[in-house]
Amino acid sequence: MHVKHLTSALTLVATAVLLTACGQKEEPATPAAAPSPAAAEPVVKIGHVAPMSGAIAHLGKDNEYGARMAIEELNAAGVTIDGKKVKLELLVEDDAADPKQGTAVAQKLADAKVAGVIGHLNSGTTIPASKLYSDAGIPQISPSATNPKYTRQGFKTTFRVVADDVHLGSTLGKYAVETLKAKNVAVIDDRTAYGQGVAEEFTKAAEAAGAKIVAKEFTTDKATDFNAILTSIKGKKPDVVFFGGMDAVAGPMLKQMKSLGIKAKFMGGDGACTAEMPKLAGDAIGEELVFCAEAGGVEGEAKVGMDEFRTKFKAKFNTDVKLYAPYVYDATKVMVAAMVKANSSDPAKYLPVLAATADYKGVTGPISFDEKGDIKHGALTLYTYKGGERTQLAVIR
C-alpha cells in the first residue's frame, strides 16, 4: 500500500476508536419520514345487472347509463354515511337476458358482498336472481321487471320502482276495447316471464271489457321469422294484435305484419314501447298504428325534472334515453338515500329504512313502497308513434 494511503487509513481507524472511547457512536443517517397518505374513503359497492349482450343490449346499456349517472352525481356531491365520506362503486354485470346467467351473476355479486343491487332488467332474470339476493340479505330494486310474481314471493329484499303487469296489462286491455274500439283481438307472447305475464293481464282485461280473443300464439325472445303465426292470425281478421315481448322482436314482427297485409293496430307493453321501435320497425311503424304503455309517468311541473334528466343524459352519453334509464337512476338514488338515513350501508341496517321510503322525489315521480315492495300509486304513460317519433297520449294512475 502507498504510504499516503496507509496514513489515511490509520487516521480513520484512530478517529473511530476515539469516538467509541468517548461514548459517541456514528449512526447512519435517518431518512426523512414519508408523509402519511390520507385515509382512503370507505367504498360502498352497488351491483347493477342487465343484458349487456344479445338482442336487447341497447336497453341494458341504457340501464347501465342511468346507474352510472346517479353514482357519478352522488360521488361528485359527496355521500356521508355515519359521519364518514364514502365512495360509491358500481359493479356492472351482464345477464344476457338469460335466467341461468342471471343467477350466476347474482351469486357473483352476493360473493362480492355488495351493499345492494339495481336490476335485473327482465322479469325472467329478476325473479330467479331475487332468491339469491334474499338468501344473502341484499336489497334489490328492479327498475323494470313488471311480472307480479317478483314481489309476491315473500322476500323482504325485493322492490321495484315501476307498476306491475296487472296494472299495465289491464290498462292496455281496456284501452284496446274502450278507445281503439277493438272487437276481435289476437295475442302473441314471447314465452318469457315478462311477455307471458303482460299478455295474460291484457287478455283478461280485454275480455272483461267485451273483446273476443280470436287467436293466442307464441314465439320466442330470439325469433326473427313470424310468418307462420301471422298468416294464421291474418285469417281471423283481428282489429288489434297485442304482443307481449321486447322491441327487438316487436320491430321485425311489425315489418312482417305489413308485408302480409295485416291491417290491425299493434299494441305492446313497456318492452315494446321504446325510442328504438321506429328504427327496428322501419316504415311499418306507421302513423298512430302502434300503441303501447310505459310503466311510470310524469306530468305538469314534474315533467320539467324528467325533461332536464333527458337533456343531461344526452349531453353526458351522446345518446337519447331508450326506456328505463330514469327508473334506474331513481332506484340507485333511493337506495343510497336509505343508507344515508340509516347511517349504514350494511344491508341488514338500511333495509328497513329502504322499505319505509315515503314520497322520495324522483325524476320519474314520487316513490313509496307498499308492504310487498311494489311502488305505491304507480303511473303508466300511454304512447303512440307519429312521424317516426314516440308521442305521449296520456298519463294514467
- Structural category is alpha/beta
Cα end-to-end separation = 104 Å
Overall pLDDT level: 90
Radius of gyration: 30 Å
As residue ranges, the low-confidence spans are 1-37
- How many beta-strand runs? 15
Strand order of the largest sheet: 8-7-9-10-11-14-15
Q: Give the overall form.
A: elongated
| Beta-strand content estimate | 15-25%
Task: Give the helices and strands as they follow along the chain.
Answer: HEHEEHEHEEHEHEHEHEHEHHHEEEE
Helix content: 40-55%
Largest sheet: 7 strands, mixed
Please give the count of helices. 12
Mind explaining what this structure looks like?
By secondary structure, the protein is of the alpha/beta class. It contains twelve helices and 15 strands. The protein has a seven-stranded mixed sheet, sandwiched between helices. A six-stranded mixed sheet has the order 2-3-1-4-5-6, with helices on both faces. A two-stranded antiparallel ribbon has the order 12-13. Strand 7 (184-189), helix 6 and strand 8 form a beta-alpha-beta unit. Helix 3 (99-111) runs parallel beside helix 4 (123-136), helix 5 packs across helix 6 and helix 11 (325-342) crosses helix 12 (347-355). The chain is elongated and about 70 Å long. The chain starts with a helix and ends with a strand. Mean pLDDT is 90; it is low at 1-37.
